[in-house]
Amino acid sequence: MTQILAIDQGTTSSRAIIFDSDLQVVAQAQEEFPQHFPRSGW
Questions:
Q1: pTM to 2 decimals?
Q2: Is residue 36, in this structure, part of any structural domain at all?
Q3: How high is the mean pLDDT in each 10-residue block of the chain (42 residues)?
Q4: Are 5 and 18 in contact (CB under 8 A)?
Q5: How far apart are CA 1 and CA 12, in angstroms?
Q6: How many folded domains does the chain comprise?
Q7: Cα angle vertex 29, ends 25, 37, to 5°?
Q8: What is the pLDDT of residue 21?
Q9: Rounded Cα–Cα distance for residues 5 and 39 (Å)
Q10: Which residues form a coiled coil (predicted)?
């Protein structure tokens, strides 16, 4: 079975989606994370 893993690395979260050979979503997950800045206003 062929599957495709798509990864989206965003500013506030990471997301992964697995598609099958018919491009139907098999599984997906998302994890949000805090942003850290060296100085206020950056």
A1: 0.76
A2: no
A3: 96 97 98 91 80
A4: yes
A5: 32
A6: 1
A7: 140
A8: 95
A9: 36
A10: none
